[in-house]
From TrEMBL:
Quaternary context: Homooctamer.
Sample GO molecular function, one term: porphobilinogen synthase activity
Stored Pfam families: ALAD
Designated name of the protein: Delta-aminolevulinic acid dehydratase
PANTHER family, A to Z: DELTA-AMINOLEVULINIC ACID DEHYDRATASE
UniProt key word NADP: no
PROSITE patterns linked: D_ALA_DEHYDRATASE
Annotated function: Catalyzes an early step in the biosynthesis of tetrapyrroles. Binds two molecules of 5-aminolevulinate per subunit, each at a distinct site, and catalyzes their condensation to form porphobilinogen.
Keyword Lyase: yes
InterPro entries listed in its UniProt record: ALAD, ALAD_AS, Aldolase_TIM
Family according to the record: Belongs to the ALAD family.
Length: 393
């Protein structure tokens, strides 16, 4: 702060002091000279500073002696927007789609607003609407008729099965979209597990991987852009990469479910696909929710075996795992905002406990902030519409 009487530089009009002719000495005026001109009416004095009144009873104190006040950067919408660290757009979303052999769309009771889509008509309509708001990536999950299920899940690699037919249809109608597929046996298994089950209940790892390789190749042959093994078998990424490359599918990417936890948040999804295990649980192959460091073991293995994208599932309850992978890998990180997360937000919104739209957008932003490059979410179309300024209020 300049002392009273110190010379002030004058550069342009509107500074509260009339100019002198330009020149090194002539263009500098003192505070007293400016005040004298104001008293003489040569130019209007600036209005006195009026501070808003505090509520009655507010204590009168000396301002805290702080050089840094972070709230200064949050005091207006323009400043908050300028300094926002994380952004989100429709390009970050992958929309999961449930498909079935029927012609009609069937609502999923535990997931309001979601349907098993008829693969010929309802599916195309849903993709069209999603593309209209900027969502161009989709992942397919089939509801397979019980008659086609078997202990070894052979229907998974039927080139004329539901998923390959759907891929070919979508690529014909929308050739520029990105199609992700699910690589696992549980939709095709009569046991409801992600792998082949031995008579003593053990999930057979290597034999399952052999089946998964055939499934991934069948999906690639149909036109899939990204195959996504969600089975959590050991060694499956390297085996899938070798199988795809051997068939000439060098450009087909692998998104590994690197850290897929044995979570209780999957319930509505299993209703959607009727894929609950016939017995037991999935804890011998999916990760323990209590474990953190174990995700680094899976990350190192998947990177070494040739994964292109690493995924964490579930999403919001596992933000620390998303950040762990982000800090330890240069690969793109995906997060799956799973059915349980979706259904809880929908239920709380329906009961008026939260603002559904605001909670939806905040939850997605949190997944991005934690380090997710892409988010698999059932909210993809709704959230994209909000980002485009056309979402429901």
């Amino acid at each position: 702060m300049l002392p009273l009487g110190a010379a002030l530089p004058y550069q342009e009009l509107g500074q509260g002091c009339a100019p002198r002719p330009s020149g090194s000495a002539a263009s500098r005026r003192t505070i007293e000279e400016c005040e004298a001109d104001a008293v003489a009416g040569k130019f209007p004095a600036p209005p006195p500073l009026v501070r808003p009144k505090a509520p009655e009873g507010t204590p009168e104190i000396r301002p805290l002696d702080m050089a840094k006040r972070p709230r200064r950067n949050r005091k207006s919408p323009a400043l908050r927007a300028a300094f926002q660290e994380t952004s989100i757009s429709p390009a970050n979303f992958v929309l999961p789609l449930f498909i079935h052999e029927g012609e009609e769309d069937a609502p999923i009771g535990a997931m309001p607003g979601c349907y098993r889509l008829g693969w010929r008509h309802g599916l195309l309509d849903e993709v069209y609407k999603a593309r209209d708001v900027g969502v161009n990536s989709f992942v397919l999950f089939p509801k397979v008729p019980d008659a086609l299920k078997s202990p070894t899940g052979d229907e998974a690699y039927n080139d004329n099965g539901l998923v390959p037919r759907t891929i070919r249809l979508l690529k014909d109608k929308f050739p520029d979209i990105v199609i992700y597929t699910d690589v696992a046996l549980d939709p095709y298994s009569s046991d409801g597990h992600d792998g082949i089950v031995r008579e003593d209940g053990v999930i057979m790892n290597d034999e399952t991987v052999y089946q998964l390789c055939k499934q991934a190749v069948s999906q690639a042959r149909a036109g899939a852009d990204v195959v996504s093994p969600s089975d959590m078998m050991d060694g499956r990424i390297g085996a899938l990469r070798s199988a795809l490359d051997a068939e000439g599918f060098h450009d087909v990417s692998i998104m590994s479910y690197t850290a897929k936890y044995a979570s209780s948040f999957y319930g509505p999804f299993r209703e959607a696909l009727d894929s609950n295990p016939r017995f037991g649980d999935k804890k011998t192959y999916q990760m323990n929710p209590a474990n953190y460091r174990e995700a680094l073991i899976e990350t190192a293995a998947d990177e070494a075996e040739g994964a292109d994208i690493l995924l964490v599932k579930p999403g919001l309850p596992y933000l620390d795992i998303i950040r762990l992978l982000r800090d330890n890998s240069a690969l793109p990180i995906a997060a799956y905002q799973v059915s349980g997360e979706y259904s809880m937000i929908k239920a709380a919104g329906a009961l008026g406990m939260v603002d559904e739209q605001k909670v939806m957008m905040e939850s997605l932003m949190c997944l991005r902030r934690a380090g997710a490059d892409v988010i698999l979410t059932y909210f993809a179309r709704h959230a994209a519409a909000v980002l485009c300024g056309i979402g429901p209020k």
